[in-house]
Amino acid sequence: MSAISQVRRIDVDNGTERYDEYEAQLGRAFRWPGKVALDRRIGEYGISASELRLDDARHEAARIFLKYWLDWLRASEQSAEAEEQFESLVRERTALARRVQLGDAAAKDLDLLDVELAQTDATRLAAQGALVDAEAAIAHDFPTLPLPERAPTVGDPEELPETPGVWVTRIVQRSHEIGALEADAMQADALAARSRADRLPDPTLALRLMNDRGGAERVVGLVFTMPVGGRHRSALATGDGASAAAMHSEAQAKRREIQREAEQAVRKVEQARRQWLAQQRALRASDGARKRTRRGWELGELSLAEWLLAERTHRQIAFAEASARADAEEARLDVLVDSHELWHAE
User: Fold this and answer.
1) In a domain, 274, yes or no
2) pLDDT band at 11; cut points 50, 70, 90
3) What contacts 219, CB < 8 A, 6 or more positions away?
4) By the number of CB atoms within 10 A of the CB, which of 11, 83, 105, 192 ranks highest?
5) Residue 286: inside a domain, yes or no?
6) For residue range 173-222, what is the model confidence (pLDDT) as tens digits?
7) CATH number of the domain that 118 lies in?
8) Which residues contact residue 166 at a Cβ distance below 8 angstroms, ignoring those fewer than 6 apart?
9) Would you say 109 and 101 are in contact if contact means Cβ atoms under 8 Å apart?
10) Where are the alpha helices (DSSP H) in the chain?
11) What's the whole-model pTM score?
């Protein structure tokens, strides 16, 4: 819309004549029918990409929480194991001190046990610190999520119920990252098509009113305006087409990346489970060995140092088994989260 108001004075023989005049124009640009559809597609793809990125942010939050949760379970179990081992050695130390007083054991054995007890206490304190750190991480990033008073025990990791290929396909098909980039690429295609369509400019139709010489002359008319396209519009269309091709390449690269990561994640489930089974066998063997070594020490067949070595080895294996069990369960849950089978609405 445009408007012009003016006063014109004209000198005549008998004086000056004054005229109020105005000119007004009200117009509107009209898009060609194909451009309307393209603009609608551009908006729809933009909304879709934004929604997918919001969903991806929620997915990333689920992945972060899963890591924090397993860190907490792992730290809680190792802290409980360290506490139990420390208390067991405290009881052994009390019993051995009594035997030393009775002359049934050497004082050097008590010294050896004190060294082992101090090392076990250091391990216990480190495990407690790791537990506090794990709890603090959850409280910091997920402050509205209350933790149970006691952490649940990490169960024996299960196998994935279907073939690896099924899980890889689910992860790739349900990836929000891929979907958002593909929506961006489709929007870029629509923008490139819109730029090509803009080589034929949109016309403008306007109603024009004129009042001259104080109303002595009045004009009502229609004004049709059509810009002339040039090389600039063609260059813009070419540039937008190149941008669309680049975005398709980016989406394809992201698909290959997600495919590779999904295959690695699914393989890791079986690998981590086999490692845990090996640690479980080692724990059982170690438990039997330490019990036999303890019996040998009690009967005087083995030295205290040999029994303490067996106990120390068993503690290390117990920590390794708990960690391997948590790692295997985390690998399995990672696949469930990435495939949207866990903690997702769809």
Assistant:
1) yes
2) low
3) 208, 209, 210, 211, 212
4) 192
5) yes
6) 999 999 999 999 999 999 898 888 877 777 888 888 888 766 667 888 88
7) 1.20.1600.10
8) none
9) no
10) 33-102, 107-141, 164-173, 176-197, 231-298, 304-338
11) 0.78
